[in-house]
Every structure is written in structure tokens, then in C-alpha cells.
């Protein structure tokens, strides 16, 4: 639609890592393909094993199933478009496709922040009130906490995406990123975006910091309780129940904070892309690996599942 000397943008071009040599882009393509497959298989396996094994029907593994489902969604939103942009098969994305990708990246990102806070609360109840754990974290409470964790993603994604894509996009349509994230898309807007930027900053701080504070409060109480345990073995056992979650939280929040809270002057586009990779692509792959390696229940359940699958296969004539 012509308007003066400007043309309305109807599709975007994802620049991805086009500034890198072709050989490195080909290597990245193979790397992301492997990560994509490992993420889907690892998180799907966690969900299936946690559902199949009665020993993993505890509240902690209920929330872990939610996290794995969320990571699969995050992965499906971001990664499938990346191979085409790296090998220049298909670097374009439609206006609606870009808005959809941004919406679900906001949704899954916000939901993950609050779900990690819920998992921290679960660990707090398990360690600080072990005798009442089963009563407090009953099925109804678990379902309510899961809904509360997933819900904040909806208003955040709806308001921010709708508002951003209501601006006029005229002129260049090149998004200097590997997916439609808010900051690089916002640079293409041909209008005054000061009010939106204030909202985006405040919204991002609230979505990241509120769950982060809840996690810190939970682990402060957990640390105080663990320090009161007289035996070293008891302290180690209590800490081991939180170690996987702590590692996942650290990976996610460090990369997310470095991506969105660094001053603009300190951020080159390429460094921001690399930081974005850590929480959008790498962390979803590492989460099932972390829980599988550090939780004996998961390792035992995986072994039981594989043995059962082999037994069934041997029974088939």
C-alpha cells in the first residue's frame, strides 16, 4: 500500500547470523538442528516418563512436566525458522507470522519465569514443611499453581504484541535477529514509540523481577532451614533436592537478564543474538539433561521405561 514515498511493510527479512562467514553459518545450522532434535526428544521423554512411572507423580515432577511442555513450545516457536535463515533458503517471515512468533515467545518466556518461581515454592514447602507437604501440595493446589504460572504470559504477550504491531512499519523490513524479538522489530517502526518503550521496560522488569524475588524469598527460607539441620548428610540431602532447580534458574535468569537489562551502549547486535540463543535455544535443551543427570528418580524411571520397551519388543513375534 503506497503512502507518499513509503511502502507499508508486509513481510520481514530475518538477518539471523548473515554477517558471519558461510562456513560458520553451515556449522550453526548443524548445531541448531541437533539442539532442536535433542530438545524435543529430551523434554518429550521427561513428560512421558513422568506420566508412566507412578514414582514420579509427585508435585515436583508435575511442575517439571509443565516446564518440559513449555520448553517444547518455546523451541517450536523459535528454532524451526532458523535453518532457513542460516542457509538463505527462506529468510522472509510474513507480517502475521512475525507477530505470531513474537506473541508466543512473550507468552512462553513470561510463563517460564512464573513457573520457575512456583517450582521454587514447591521446594520451599518440601524442605521447610515436609510433614505437611502432601497436604499443602495436593492435586487441586498443584493445578491452581500451574494455571497461575501460565496465565501471566497471556496479558503480557497480548498487550505488547498488539501494541507494537499497531505501529506503522515503513521503509526497511530487515530484522537484525534470528527471530522476531521486540527490540529489533521496534527499530523498524516509523512513529514515536517512547510510551511503548516505557511500558515494555516496566513490563519486562515486572515479569522477570517478581518471579525472581519470589525465588529468592523461597531459597532464603530454604537456606535458613537447611542450616539448622545438625548432620552434614541431612544438609546434603536437603540441598540435593534443590540443586537441579537452582541450576536451571541460574542459566535462565542470567542469560535473560544479560539480554534485556544491559545498557544499549554495551550491547552489539551480534552479542545480543548470542545471549538470546542461551535462553531460547540452549536452556530448553539443557533442562531435561540437568534433571535426568541429577535426579536418581528420573534416571531410574528412564531405565525402567527402556527395559519395559525392550521387554515389549521381545514379546512381539
| Order of helical and strand elements | EEEHHHEHHHHEHHHHH
At the third CATH level, what is the topology name? Rhopdopsin 7-helix transmembrane proteins
Overall 3D form: globular
Measured by DSSP, the beta-strand proportion falls in under 5%
Which CATH architecture?
Up-down Bundle
Arithmetic mean pLDDT: 84
Number of helices: 12
Q: Classify the helix fraction into a percent range.
A: over 70%
CATH class: Mainly Alpha
Number of domains: 1
Through-space gap between termini: 65 Å
Q: Regions with pLDDT < 50 over 5+ consecutive residues? A: 1-5
What do you see in this structure?
This protein has 317 residues and is mainly α. The protein is 73% helix and 4% strand. It is built from twelve helices and five strands. The chain has helices spanning 22-52, 59-78, 82-86, 95-128, 133-136, 139-150, 153-164, 182-186, 194-227, 232-260, 269-294, 296-315; strands at residues 2-3, 6-7, 11-14, 92-94, 174-175. The protein has a three-stranded mixed beta sheet with strand order 4-3-5. Strands 1-2 form a two-stranded antiparallel ribbon. Strand 1 (2-3) and strand 2 form a beta hairpin. Helix 2 packs antiparallel against helix 11 (269-294).
Amino acid at each position: 500500500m503506497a503512502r507518499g514515498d513509503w511502502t507499508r511493510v508486509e513481510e520481514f527479512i530475518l538477518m539471523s547470523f548473515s554477517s558471519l562467514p558461510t562456513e560458520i553459518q553451515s556449522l550453526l545450522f548443524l548445531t541448531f538442528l541437533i539442539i532442536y532434535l535433542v530438545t524435543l526428544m529430551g523434554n518429550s521423554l521427561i513428560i512421558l516418563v513422568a506420566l508412566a512411572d507412578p514414582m514420579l507423580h509427585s508435585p515436583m515432577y508435575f511442575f517439571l512436566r509443565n516446564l518440559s511442555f513449555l520448553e517444547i513450545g518455546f523451541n517450536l516457536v523459535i528454532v524451526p525458522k532458523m535453518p532457513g535463515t542460516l542457509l538463505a533458503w527462506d529468510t522472509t517471515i510474513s507480517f502475521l507470522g512475525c507477530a505470531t512468533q513474537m506473541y508466543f515467545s512473550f507468552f512462553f518466556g513470561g510463563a517460564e519465569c512464573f513457573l520457575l518461581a512456583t517450582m521454587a515454592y514447591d521446594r520451599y514447602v518440601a524442605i521447610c514443611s515436609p510433614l505437611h507437604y502432601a497436604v499443602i501440595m495436593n492435586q487441586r493446589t498443584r493445578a491452581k499453581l500451574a494455571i497461575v504460572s501460565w496465565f501471566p504470559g497471556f496479558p503480557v504477550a497480548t498487550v505488547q504484541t498488539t501494541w507494537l504491531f499497531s505501529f506503522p512499519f515503513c521503509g526497511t523490513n530487515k530484522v537484525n535477529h534470528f527471530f522476531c524479538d521486540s527490540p529489533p522489530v521496534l527499530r523498524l517502526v516509523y512513529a514515536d514509540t517512547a510510551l511503548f518503550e516505557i511500558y515494555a521496560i516496566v513490563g519486562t522488569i515486572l515479569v522477570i523481577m517478581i518471579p525472581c524475588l519470589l525465588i529468592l524469598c523461597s531459597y532464603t527460607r530454604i537456606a535458613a532451614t537447611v542450616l539448622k539441620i545438625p548432620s552434614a548428610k541431612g544438609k546434603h540431602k536437603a540441598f540435593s533436592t534443590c540443586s537441579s532447580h537452582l541450576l536451571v534458574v541460574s542459566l535462565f535468569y542470567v542469560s535473560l537478564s544479560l539480554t534485556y537489562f544491559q545498557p544499549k551502549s554495551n550491547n552489539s547486535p551480534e552479542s545480543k543474538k548470542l545471549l538470546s540463543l542461551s535462553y531460547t535455544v540452549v536452556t530448553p535443551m539443557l533442562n531435561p539433561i540437568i534433571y535426568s543427570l541429577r535426579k536418581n528418580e528420573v534416571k531410574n524411571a528412564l531405565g525402567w521405561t527402556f527395559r519395559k520397551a525392550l521387554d515389549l519388543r521381545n514379546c512381539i513375534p
